Amino acid sequence: MTLWRKALRRYEGLSLKNKIFVSILGVVLLISVAIAFLARYILVSSLTTELEMRGSAIAHSTAERGSGFVLDKNSPMLLSLIFDEARLHERKHLISYIFVTDQNEEVLAHTMTRAFPAELRQANALPPGENRSVRLVTVNGEDIHDIAVPMNEGLYRIGTVHVGLSKSHIDSLIATLRLTFLGFISAIILIIFFISNRLTQYITRPLSKLTRISDELSRGNFDITTELQEEDEHWKPMDCPAYENTEMPCWHFDQSVRAAASHRTCGNCVFYRKRGGDEVAQMGDSFRNMVWSIKLYRRRLRESEEKYRSLFDSGPDPVFVVDCEDFRIADVNPRALELYGYEKDELIGMSYLALGPENRKDCLQSYEGLEGYEGEGGGDGQAVVNGGTGCLYHPKVLHYKKGLKPFYVNVHACPISYRGRHAIIIAVTDITEMIEKDAQLIQAGKMKSLGEMSAGIAHELNQPLNAIKMGSEFLAILDEQGQTAPRESFRQVVREISGQVDRAAEIINTLRAFGRKAEMLKEPVDVNKPVRSVLTIVRRQFELDNIRFTLDLAEGLPRVLAHDNRLQQVFFNLFTNARDAINEASTAADLNARRGITIRSYAEAGGVVVEVSDTGIGMAADMRDKIFEPFFTTKETGQGMGLGLAITYGIVRDYGGQIRIDSAPGQGTTFSLHFPQAG
Questions:
Q1: CB atoms < 10 A from the CB of 640, how many?
Q2: Please, what is the end-to-end C-alpha distance for the chain in angstroms?
Q3: Cα-Cα-Cα-Cα dihedral of 453, 458, 461, 467, to 10°?
Q4: Using an 8 Å Cβ cutoff, are 652 and 527 in contact?
Q5: What is the DSSP letter of 351?
Q6: Helical (H) or strand (E) element with 421
Q7: Distance in angstroms (rounded) separating the CA atoms of residues 395 and 385
Q8: How far apart are CA 490 and CA 474, in angstroms?
Q9: Least confident of 44-48, 157-161, 553-557, 565-569
Q10: Cα gap 73→81, rounded to integer Å
């Protein structure tokens, strides 16, 4: 540590020129050393891998061309083949040997001029089913990369080809490349050494003069009159039209905030001047321009504040300014007073979270992500972050007017600075009427669906009614004949009647629950329950249409935040959509057609997934992109309005979920619904 402190003291005592020079040289040396080590690793690994791939290619080529010789037991031709492969062009330096073994690992031919080492035969045995095996072996004191590949005839393995690559030759190639690369790095270091020395001399020469100018500016003297520049009698910023008219865009002032096409470019600019000379003289011009820029921006800022205050007060939607520290309302516009029914004195200082207490947790998580925002979007919960702006969007949030009158709003929130404090500007839009119309549309769709399923529902109710009628008639006949039913038979009939009554009641209760108007509520729900409820209604109708259901519903799934009634509408729409797709692919009379719907549910990391798959006609990629658009339909006129999947998509998104499609023409379709787990 003491040595390090001494080095720092000596470094601090250097002149700026030497500091720049030493720093550049030190960085270059560190980078060079890092590149050298990295290059060594890359050269060794990549070159070794490349040569192993070449050896594998030689081995595969030998296996393909020599399989016939092995089957014919033509050893001379096999030996000639491997000698040709081993001595072809530059391979003679790389390849140490090639030998071929049969199924019993007996050597059929090899290229060694000495006796074949017995231990080499099993040194790199190729396991069954493997396509290649590479191992470093030692042969006669020399390290060899042995590459073994199978020799196949059809599906059967008839032998193995071994190719040995000389490790010493590979190392020599690596050493040559390494030496060349290090020479190149050394030349670069010398060039940078010379350039950095000259560059530091050029940079530091005028710094003393620039220091004097900076001192004058720090004292408030913005009229720069030094030897670095002479007086410019033509510089009259007051004559600039952009200075007089702040609405006029100037190419100098506004190039960072306005489109380049809208900049005004004067033929003879009276403000912005960049005269010739070194950087310090140009720096003087820049300081002078900066002073007048500050004056202009202050003027524009005052006008902008007045303009946006007018927009704030006259806006058609309620706008709140909320302090980030305690989430209390700092300012509101008149529209907020009209909509919420409060006086301004009542809203100022009130906690914004009190307007929507049921969403308090989500609001805190989302808005805390905006506090101190400096340029990248943030936020949690189900808020949507607008890319690159840092603003949040909360759809369908429940707020309360004065007197606890509920209504729904969409919320837009962006970070701002208000009176020197971090704040959030929040604009809300009343969507209560739109929510009510959506609910009416969904309700109308339910009624239409129940009408379409009336035949199946009647059949489902007819079965328990028939059973009840038969049981009651049986007891009536016994009573008319003055007979008494055996006690066990009487109990069985009564139990059957009671069970059928429960079954009919369950069907009726399911219909009543499905037909009830859905509420915009969230509660923990088991996704399997709405699936089974909808199947109670539609299963029989689908079976009459020769469509069978296959269920794979996992038990004990985590609950999701949703509403059972609205989820029933989602699954009902998906089932009917699957039925229509199946009927397009085949008819109910086609007994050989695959007509089925598979429903699968399972837990996923952080949520639950429900998949609805059909064996229908499928859809192309361009149709998948439009399938959730309102009023998009592939049916004939009068057969559908194209709102079912649009409603489904909206409900799933309301609960923070996602819906995905996997489909191809003629291959059926799978809808995957992903819901987050209830917290």
A1: 16
A2: 52
A3: -140
A4: no
A5: B
A6: strand 421-430
A7: 12
A8: 10
A9: 44-48
A10: 14
Return the exposure string of 585-610: e unless at least 16 CB atoms fall within 10 Å of the residue's CB, then b: bbeeeeeeeebbbbbbbeeeeebbbb
Nearest residue to 673 via CA among 651, 656, 653, 657:
657
Stated as kind and residue range, the H or E segment containing 72 is helix 16-72
**How far apart, in Å, are the Cα atoms of 33 and each of 37, 172, 180, 190, 192?**
6, 22, 15, 14, 15
Q: Using one digit for the tens of pLDDT, what is the confidence trace for 452-477?
A: 666 556 656 666 676 676 667 666 76
Mean pLDDT estimate for the chain: 75
* Pairing label, strands 548-553, 596-604: parallel
Contact call for residues 115 and 24 (beta carbons, < 8 A): no
Residue 288 structure tokens: 């002078």
> Dihedral of the CA atoms 54, 58, 61, 66 (nearest 10)?
-170
Q: Could you tell me the two tokens for 118?
A: 């017995």
Taking the C-alpha atoms of residue 417 and residue 650, their distance in angstroms, rounded to an integer, is: 35
Task: Give residue 516's identity as a one-letter amino acid code.
Answer: R
DSSP string, 358-406: GGHHHHHHHHHHHTT--SS----TTPEEPTTT--EEEEEEEEEETTTEE
Q: Is the pLDDT assigned to residue 630 strictly greater than 80?
A: no
pTM above 0.90, yes or no: no
List 676's β-bridge partners, or say none. Answer: 607
Instruction: Quote the CA–CA distance of 397 and 359 in Å, as a whole number.
Output: 7
* Angle, CA of 613, 619 and 624, to the nearest 5°: 95
pLDDT band at 229, cuts 50/70/90? Answer: very low
Higher pLDDT, 328 or 538: 328
Question: Which of 2 and 616 is assigned the larger pLDDT?
Answer: 616
47 phi and psi angles, rounded to 5 deg: -70, -40
Nearest CA to 547 among 450, 612, 616?
616
Of 202, 187, 189, nearest in space to 29 by CA:
189
| Tokens representing residue 588 in the block | 């109910």
